[in-house]
Amino acid sequence: MPQLMILIGSTRPGRLALPIGEWVADRARAHGAFDVEIADLAEIGLPLMDEPDHPRMRQYTKPHTRAWSERVDAADAFVFVSPEYNYGIAAPLKNAIDYLHDEWKHKAVGFVSYGGVSAGTRAVQMTKQIISALSMVPVYDAVNIPFVFQFLDDESRVQANDAMEDAATQMFDALLEWDTALRPMREQQAQLAT
Description:
Elements: E1 3-8, H1 17-31, E2 35-40, H2 41-44, H3 63-74, E3 77-83, H4 91-98, E4 108-114, H5 121-132, E5 137-138, E6 143-145, H6 162-193
Helix pairs in contact: 1-6
């Protein structure tokens, strides 16, 4: 069964990415096609890039980088859960992506974005440019949550509507299809690396 990492892309106190990410993880488990892991950047605590060598070299000097590399390497596909900050990607998410290189290669990414009227979609568009440079495949299907507070209860749990539920299912279906298509490329890459 493919390993799906739900990456919580905000570290701000009071962030909504965590409860939204937990909803996404529950939906992914209910979908049934993936082993699901939540990777919360607030818990992982990556400092601003502090490795001396380019990530492509994989000559990591810090324990936090080696641990992050192992987690990302083990994942087959991703869902990035993130807000939009000033029309762009959240800095912790960009930092986490930039720490690594080949670990991301030939893997599919779905997006769950949230915010006001734009639902975080401008940040998603920026992130797609970044991950494409790493040979990742952004899936078309996504969950975009506009005016996010209307979908949270008093305990900040997500109360999804039918459109969000359907979008999540379509995103997971697309991630599974792309994982199947990309897996031979990852296997070939692994053989070349040995």
